Amino acid sequence: MATKGIKNIFLSASIPLPNRDVKYIETADIIAIRDAVIALTTVVLPHHRIIWGGHPSITPLIYYVMQKLDMNIQEHVTLYQSKLFEKFFPEDNNKFENVILTDIIDNNRDLSLLHMRERMLSESDFAAGVFIGGMDGIEDEYRMFKEYYPEAILLPIASTGAATKLVYENLFPQNLKNTRLEKDYGYMSLFQDFLMDKI
After folding, report:
1. Rounded CA gap, 49 and 7, in Å?
2. 3.40.50.450, 3.40.50.300, 3.40.50.10240, 3.40.50.720: which CATH number matches 8-196?
3. Using 50, 70 and 90 to split pLDDT, how confident is the model at 3?
């Protein structure tokens, strides 16, 4: 149960891999993805909790911010990982106290990821979901998050490109679209205005 006043923010993010679908690589802005994750973590962690499925390109960035903030905020981060990817876990995983490992289902990648996402989204209540860069997992997590939390704030940061740009263009409600999500690279103020001031 979250401490009173602390809200849970779901982060769905990754840096697309060059050997995966070209539609994610061609628009991915890797610097923007890193900047957005660092800004989100910097703005959110002193006050609220970030929960994410630990993609190896993202977890080290979150740990970097935690060190920089120089606060004892381990309880403000929870990292979910499927045991299926254990051999790929970044070393930074060991620096987090709240790591939840989910079971391998039938030795199947898709079923194991679905199981991890179902646990991740059902074991906490979320005030917002933030989507940054990424590949097909971003699209899956956006659809699932919206189904689980229809009233939560949705923030697909389209300026980071990749899967999040596709989510913004194809799945994000027209009435919620905002040019700042497409063109504003000042992520600290963006998250302050669109997230912190509203939760």
Report:
1. 6
2. 3.40.50.450
3. very low
